[in-house]
Automatic annotation (TrEMBL), chain A:
Sequence ranges of Pro residues compositional bias: 17-29
InterPro entries linked to this entry: Elongator_complex_protein_4, P-loop_NTPase
Superkingdom of this protein's organism: Eukaryota
Known pathway: tRNA modification; 5-methoxycarbonylmethyl-2-thiouridine-tRNA biosynthesis
One term under GO cellular component: elongator holoenzyme complex
The species this protein was found in: Hymenoscyphus albidus
Protein name: Elongator complex protein 4
Lineage, uppermost ranks: Eukaryota, Fungi, Dikarya, Ascomycota, Pezizomycotina
Listed transmembrane segments: none
Automatic annotation (TrEMBL), chain B:
InterPro entries noted in UniProt: ELP6, P-loop_NTPase
Gene3D superfamilies: P-loop containing nucleotide triphosphate hydrolases (3.40.50.300)
Protein name: Elongator complex protein 6
Pathway where this protein functions: tRNA modification; 5-methoxycarbonylmethyl-2-thiouridine-tRNA biosynthesis
Gene Ontology, cellular component aspect: elongator holoenzyme complex
Length: 415, 278
């Protein structure tokens, strides 16, 4: 029936409507080859501009840009975010990561947290309704860049801008439909409405005491349930589903019994996760947050946890008093004052090869982060704001002293 | 070619003399993977160039990796022009996977390819016997008299993650394996938290194992980050030091000398090694 010859040429938007094919009927091949040429990626993923491996967004644009030029978290790798102090900035990074997964319809597995945690995810921001609005926003940002922040503009152009450009060719072939958004904007004041068959799985620790005050047996690994859940879920889901694993607040005493920090439990668990990540290199990504005050970086256990992760970032927030003092000094309208510093200890893929040392990743730069309601977490190079009365000091210095017909500046005399 | 085997490192990467132990240490951010790949390359490829050697003089390699899977090694060896699968088919290379199944419970048998074995039991005897198995497989392939280079990548994971293994037992296992192989290359972590602050069992065991291995080693290559912070064109520092008992041994000393070099690993996996100030 489908092979019946029809005399009608079906109008096709495909390539070459001006060249009628000799057979006088629509040739199905051009359309299908075009479709085959565009590789179909699962939603929320795109190939890395460096080596083509699939990446997914962490839900934070500036964090995506940091990850060694891959413009996203490479699937099959893990990221450990450590945080010193009593704040929970890492927790909000994790929430963006999970929220991005919910929006992209990925399957999410959260270890240890109760289901109520899922209702606190940030909702989609209003500026997310199209790429047009985003472009305007970028333009606005550029207008506000002062001379002092020119380097920051460069930073954005090489990393953020590059990522945007790369995004366009991908979306052009499907120009009729809305271009796929890789990373959404979230608004912290809104709450994400979860789809009714929720795609988030909350897996408790298997040794978690169920409202009984009997201590669980310390010889049993509390992670077996999670691993079991993961392996069955990965085997039974179609190969195009992306799974996001989230492990919030590792070793937090509110969630974890004390014996979890026994190396013979946690290290095999992380090793198994690493094995699973490598086994499903196109379907799985992992984000762990670890509060540092309870397990400082100077301990061997924390170092092993770091060694078993592919990427290690450390957030060190400023004391709250320092942040309050900053805005008075100088904050342009668009720039939030930095709330802390970011240290990169290891990045996925690059460091595994033995590399390091920059390469457009911002390694070695002083990086700061700020968290705001609308823009989410923004990581950018740290620079001190211009000091008030800076101009006068400069003028004075410029005048200098005239000694023997030669201009001698203050600095010269002192040396 | 400079990107394949760095010229300055050539004397260190060539096949070590019989019964020797080479220790490579890494820290977070300065991994030894590129160095291991170059050991593989020089053992498997450089012999090809002088293929007038009789086949029983060729070097064979057994690679045991506890932190990385075969796909990683395959992909990065390919960038060096080294086809590990081809060598595995020729029975010159064998891989023991200590990542995929070590702690995974109830894994169904996956199709095991030639020259690839998956460890499923973290017990020392199981690990040791599987490595011995791979060595014997290679030995059985073509007559006796060939040299087998054994490379073990991060056996310290066993020490950290499996409770009852002590540093002496693990050391004994290495000693036993050295009897089977021509030479042994081991990579270990030497991060400061693992070696200096010896407060927990994990730390003392690691430090004890690392130190005892370092004392046995004929030479060690220590990788660390640049002391002065990150730089755009330097990935880290490689320091080569010769073991104590070998200092009197003229044979080895003629071949290698103690030195400290800088290295840079590019995004494509190519490595440049250079002196300070070059």
């Amino acid at each position: 029936m489908s092979f019946r010859k029809r005399g009608i040429v079906v109008p096709q938007a495909g390539p070459g409507p001006g060249s009628p094919n000799p057979l006088g009927r629509p040739n199905p091949i051009p359309g299908s080859t075009a479709a085959a040429a565009i590789p179909k990626h699962p939603p929320g993923t795109r190939p890395s501009p460096l080596d083509g491996r699939l990446t997914t967004s962490t839900g934070t644009r500036s964090l995506d840009a940091l990850l060694a030029g891959h413009a996203g978290l490479a699937l099959g790798t893990s990221l450990l975010i450590e945080e010193s102090g009593t704040t929970d900035f890492a927790g909000s990074l994790l929430k963006y990561y999970v929220a991005e997964g919910v929006v992209q319809k990925h399957t999410i597995h959260v270890l240890g947290m109760p289901e109520g945690w899922g209702r606190e995810l940030p909702g989609l921001g209003s500026g997310d309704d199209g790429s047009k609005g985003k472009k305007v926003k970028v333009g606005e940002e550029k207008m506000n860049i002062a001379w002092r922040y020119e380097r920051l503009g460069e930073f954005g152009a090489t990393i953020g801008g590059g990522a945007r450009e790369r995004n366009f060719p991908q979306s052009t072939p499907t120009s009729s439909s809305e271009p796929a958004i890789f990373c959404h904007d979230f608004d912290l004041s809104k709450r994400l409405i979860l789809p009714s068959p929720s795609n988030i799985h909350f897996i408790p620790l298997s040794a978690q005491p169920t409202l009984t005050f009997i201590d669980s047996s310390p010889s049993l690994s509390p992670f077996t349930k999670f691993i079991h859940h993961l392996t069955t879920n990965l085997q039974n889901s179609p190969p195009t589903t992306i799974h996001r694993l989230a492990i919030p607040n590792l070793f937090s005493p509110a969630l974890y019994p004390s014996h979890t920090s026994n190396p013979t439990h946690i290290l095999p668990f992380l090793h198994t996760l690493r094995a699973l990540l490598r086994k499903y290199p196109t379907r799985l990504a992992l984000l762990i947050t670890l509060p540092l005050p309870l397990s400082p970086r100077s301990t061997g256990l924390t170092r092993w946890i770091e060694l078993l992760s592919d990427g290690v970032l450390e957030l060190s927030p400023f004391p709250s008093s320092a942040i309050v003092a900053k805005p008075a000094a100088a904050s342009t309208v668009s720039e939030e004052p930095p709330q802390g510093m970011v240290n990169i200890h290891r990045l996925p893929v690059v460091h595994e090869k033995g590399g390091g040392g920059g390469g457009g990743s911002g390694m070695g730069d002083d990086l700061s982060f700020s968290l705001s309601r609308r823009r989410g977490m923004v990581i950018r190079p740290y620079s001190l704001p211009p000091v008030k009365g800076d101009g006068e000091a400069k003028e004075e210095e410029g005048r200098g002293l005239e000694v023997g017909g030669r201009r001698v500046r203050k600095g010269d005399i002192e040396f | 070619m400079s990107s394949r085997i760095p010229h300055l490192l050539e004397p260190y990467l060539s096949l070590p003399p019989e019964a020797s132990l080479v220790l490579l240490t890494s820290v977070l951010g300065a991994s030894t993977n590129w160095l291991v790949l170059r050991f593989l390359h020089s053992a498997l490829i450089n012999n090809d160039a002088s293929s007038d050697l009789p086949p029983d003089e060729q070097t064979k390699v057994v690679l045991v990796s506890f932190m990385r899977d075969f796909a990683f090694w395959k992909e990065n060896a390919k960038r060096l022009g080294l086809d590990l699968e081809k060598h595995a088919a020729k029975k010159r290379f064998s891989f023991v996977d200590g990542l995929s199944g070590l702690f995974l419970p109830s894994q169904q048998k996956t199709s095991v390819k030639t020259g690839e074995q998956v460890l499923t039991n973290p017990g020392l005897s199981a690990v040791s016997s599987m490595i011995q198995n791979s060595i014997n497989n290679l030995k059985a392939a073509a007559g006796s008299g060939e040299k087998i280079l054994l490379i073990i990548d991060q056996p310290d994971l066993l020490l950290a993650a499996v409770g009852e293994i002590g540093p002496t037992n693990l050391g004994d296992m290495l000693l036993g394996l050295r009897e089977e192989a021509h030479a042994l290359v081991v990579t270990l972590s030497a991060d400061q938290p693992l070696t200096l602050t010896q407060q927990t069992c994990l730390e003392t065991d690691h430090a004890a194992f690392l130190l005892s291995t370092a004392h046995q080693a004929d030479f060690t290559m220590n990788l660390r980050l640049l002391d002065s912070g990150t730089a755009r064109d330097v990935s880290g520092v490689v320091r080569v030091s010769i073991g104590e008992q070998e200092l009197e041994n003229d044979n080895l000393q003629k071949r290698i000398e103690e030195r400290e070099l800088l290295y840079f690993v590019g995004g494509d996996g190519g490595v440049k090694v250079f002196e300070r100030g070059q």
